[in-house]
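for the recovery benchmark. tokens below, seq after
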């Protein structure tokens, strides 16, 4: 692009010396080639000088240049990455590792662990004695677990949460995350809320999301994300997770609204889609950034129509995943 500054190659005819006619033709050819070579060289030098001027000042100069080529989302997702890491997702980089058969996807969540907690368990309905056991959530005692709600037509919240959680796992793994589900239809009931929290803690999860849908009267619509209140008591101490959990929740709420088109709940949260609670064992006992999301109201016909749609559930999972990427990438 700097070629405009290099001198144009002289016309061949203009270089012919009228005083030496005996090798005019030969000299024309030689001079022509000779004239072109320096011109080309000058152009190369200018190009190199221009390119060099950008990197001589600071070795890190190419880094912001490469970052500027990324979308804002990508840039935000990997603030500390080096240029080589930034380009690791380029087509040329990906084709250089064709032999890595089951290798996890590389992406903004590479190296991150996310625990996904499918709320309730469809088996809880048959194990009410077990799930009614009282457990210690630090600030109080509560039931080990609950059955969750259903739509009026009988679609269970527990089936909804597991389906969204599996979709969420797939979406997160595609971004490079290690994903742990607290359960996946591999146990007759539970786990207890204490164990759900412990799984996230022991995984040292970078983020934890508990997936739910609400069960309140018809006409109450929309989603909300539940953030941990600052509590301290017994094994509960949320002082270190209140801040990051709010950021996680805000990211999820914003992305969930965007991907699903759903509005924040119209019955709590003052239209923010965010609610703070101090009575949930799964939050109180967490040492890792954690939120719950109530994706909609199963008892409202319009919300239920969405919650029972696989396509909508995919959008819901994608919104949650995007929120996690935004949180962990920022
Ligand atoms: Zn629930």
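predicted aa per position
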């Amino acid at each position: 692009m700097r070629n405009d500054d290099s001198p144009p190659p002289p016309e061949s005819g203009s270089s012919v010396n009228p005083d030496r006619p005996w090798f005019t033709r030969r000299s024309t050819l030689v001079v022509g080639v000779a004239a072109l070579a320096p011109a080309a060289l000058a152009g190369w030098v200018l190009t190199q000088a221009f390119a060099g001027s950008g990197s001589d000042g600071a070795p890190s100069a190419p880094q912001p240049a490469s970052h500027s080529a990324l979308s804002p989302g990508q840039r935000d997702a990997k603030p500390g990455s080096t240029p080589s890491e930034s380009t690791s997702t380029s087509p040329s980089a990906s084709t250089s590792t064709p032999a890595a058969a089951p290798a996890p996807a590389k992406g903004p969540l590479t190296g991150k662990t996310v625990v996904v907690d499918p709320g309730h368990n469809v088996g809880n309905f048959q194990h009410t004695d077990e799930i009614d056991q009282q457990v210690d959530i630090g600030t109080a005692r509560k039931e080990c677990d609950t059955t969750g709600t259903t739509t009026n037509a009988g679609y269970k919240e527990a089936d909804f949460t597991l389906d969204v959680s599996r979709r969420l796992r797939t979406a997160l793994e595609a971004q490079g995350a290690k994903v742990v589900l607290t359960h996946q239809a591999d146990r007759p009931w539970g786990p207890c809320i204490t164990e759900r929290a412990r799984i996230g803690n022991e995984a040292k999860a970078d983020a934890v999301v508990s997936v739910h849908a609400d069960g309140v009267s018809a006409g109450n619509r929309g989603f909300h994300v539940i953030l941990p209140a600052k509590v301290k008591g017994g094994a509960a101490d949320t002082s270190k997770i209140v801040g990051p959990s709010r950021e996680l929740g805000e990211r999820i709420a914003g992305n969930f609204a965007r991907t699903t088109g759903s509005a924040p709940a119209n019955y709590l949260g003052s239209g923010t889609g965010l609610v703070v609670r101090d009575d949930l064992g799964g939050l109180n006992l967490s040492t890792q950034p954690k939120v719950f999301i109530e994706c909609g109201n199963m008892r409202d016909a319009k919300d239920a129509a969405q919650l029972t749609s696989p396509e909508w559930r995919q959008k819901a999972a994608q919104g949650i995943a995007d929120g996690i990427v935004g949180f962990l990438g920022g």
